[in-house]
Amino acid sequence: MIEVSGQGGQVQFDGQYITITRKGFLARATVGKGEKRLHISQITAVQWKPAGPLVNGFIQFTLPGGNERRSAFGGQTASAAQDENSVVFTKKQQPEFEMLRAALDQAIAAQHGQRTPSTPTAPVSLADELTKLATLRDQGILSSAEFEQQKARLLDQ
């Protein structure tokens, strides 16, 4: 399970569900207190803006039928702070959010049966693929059933 805390929100990812939790005054002042849980299959895109020296960054989850709007120049982070599917983070918090983003990219690609853009195009050995799957299972990103299903798929090729 990956848990990260940003400005006015926390994100948990258990390999299947993303849970955005908001507590405290800042949450009440922006989006509202509470919890939102999204299954990885519901997410169609992940928007990412890295934090800079003077501005915060954010991670935003796009859902089918979502009504995203283009922010004015310099207003992306302010708009994200008002969005229930976004969590704003500082430069100091960014490395944890980068790890979350990488895990989400892998899970979304696996959910949709795609290869991630960073996956090399060179052939990979069966042993390497099985090792990767075992690592994802051990990290809690894949359940034992999903591991067995992917393992069977690899061995049937």
Description:
- This protein is an alpha+beta fold.
- The chain folds into 2 domains: 2-111, PH-domain like, CATH 2.30.29; 126-156.
- It has 5 helices and 7 strands.
- Strands 1-2-3-4 form a 4-stranded antiparallel β-sheet.
- The two termini are 31 Å apart.
Q: List the strand order in the largest sheet.
A: 1-2-3-4
- In the residues, how many domains can be counted? 2
The mean pLDDT is: 79
Low-pLDDT residue intervals, each spanning 5 or more residues? none
Order of helix and strand elements from N to C terminus? EEEHEEEHEHHH
CATH architecture tag of the largest domain: Roll
Form type: elongated
Question: What distance lies between the first and last C-alpha atoms, to the nearest angstrom?
Answer: 31 Å
Q: What is the third-level CATH name, the topology of the largest domain?
A: PH-domain like
Q: How many runs of DSSP E, i.e. beta strands?
A: 7
User: How much strand?
Assistant: 15-25%
Give the % helix: 25-40%
CATH class of the largest domain: Mainly Beta
C-alpha Rg (nearest Å): 17 Å
| Structural classification | alpha+beta
Number of helices: 5
Quick one: biggest sheet?
4 strands, antiparallel
Which secondary structure elements does this structure contain, and how are they paired or packed?
Layout: E1 2-6, E2 9-13, E3 17-22, H1 24-29, E4 34-39, E5 45-49, E6 57-62, H2 76-81, E7 86-89, H3 94-111, H4 126-138, H5 144-156
Antiparallel strand pairs: 1-2, 2-3, 3-4, 5-6, 6-7
Helix pairs in contact: 4-5
Which descriptors apply to this entry?
157 residues; PH-domain like; 2 domains; 24% strand
